[in-house]
Amino acid sequence: MTRLVFILGAALLSFLFSCRPSYVKGRYKIKRPMYTHAICTVDGSYMYFNWEVNGDKRRVTVRGYGDKSMNGKVFNVIYDAQHPNNNYILQDQQLFLPHEHTTKTMGMVYRSRKYDCFFLFNKDFAGWSYVPKGKGIKKGDKFEVEYLPQNPERCAIDFEKSATIQIPAYGSGVCIEYMEGIWATFQFEIKGKRYTAYSLSQPHMVIGDRFKIVYDTLHPEHANVLLDQPMFLPSEHIGKSIGTLLKVTPEGCEFYYLPEKHTSKKYKKYQSFQADSLGDYSNLKKGDKFEVDFSPSHLERAIIYLNRPLR
């Protein structure tokens, strides 16, 4: 009898403890998951996530960073059907409401950290997002971005939809904006329509630099800038000079050149090694000289030809 009472008592305690809110790695255990959405409002250093369950208004407060760009953003909420106080704001799952008209484009991650990232899209805008746990995101990765045209700060990057190129075609893109050492924006034209592509920036990059671009024939917004293939258009007037290597890295080289008859100033440029080239760059060293083409109308634009050495 005593043993039976002990077993029943243990079972009752086990049941009671299972009904209490408990945490798993900082989250409540949610046995009967339900989903809804929460709208974020920012006040000072606080963020408030407001949501409803069956007409019952609820709020989750987050203290520590009151980023104004979060104001008005909508996020997925998971909660327990029987214990709505057991909930979690999924800040890596931003939503748009059914009545909101959105536009989709491609964006590029220009800064990546363990739990979050910053990305560019639509030529002039930048966004921020949490990164789902276990998702390996790195600088330069490209994904689909959804945003509100009337309020581009309301944007969400979809890490499940990367910029794949199924049917490749090639063109040329011109740099229209950049932040040295971080990102660059390029514009290219297909059948009279202009598109935007993003890349990481290079040292000594300038507005007007032109590179080969590969894009998807069916979805030209899926495009990659080939930074190892700088180019001039056939219609451009080209000048000749001598380039001297200043620094050689595993990825590329820095060089300087003097556009004679145009200026006495020396210009510096960086050029990536071609990934598919058969050339051997292991023997390159500081002081080596090669042929350089430059633009007389824009002296900071130049290409060094590492297969044309000079003595």
Please explain how this structure is put together.
- By secondary structure, this protein is mostly beta strands.
- It has four domains: 27-95, no CATH class; 103-162, OB fold (Dihydrolipoamide Acetyltransferase, E2P); 168-230, OB fold (Dihydrolipoamide Acetyltransferase, E2P) (Beta Barrel); 239-310, Beta Barrel (OB fold (Dihydrolipoamide Acetyltransferase, E2P)), CATH 2.40.50.
- The protein is built from one helix and 22 strands.
- It has one helix at 2-19; strands spanning 23-24, 27-28, 33-43, 46-53, 56-63, 74-80, 87-95, 103-112, 116-121, 125-130, 142-148, 151-162, 168-179, 183-190, 193-199, 210-216, 223-230, 239-248, 252-257, 267-272, 289-295, 298-310.
- The strands form five sheets. It has a five-stranded antiparallel β-sheet, with no helix packed on it. It has a five-stranded antiparallel β-sheet with strand order 10-9-8-11-12, with no helix packed on it. Strands 15-14-13-16-17 form a five-stranded antiparallel β-sheet, with no helix packed on it.
- A hairpin with a 2-residue loop joins strand 21 (289-295) and strand 22.
- It is elongated, with a radius of gyration of 28 Å.
- 24% of the residues are buried.
- Mean pLDDT is 85; it is low at 1-26.
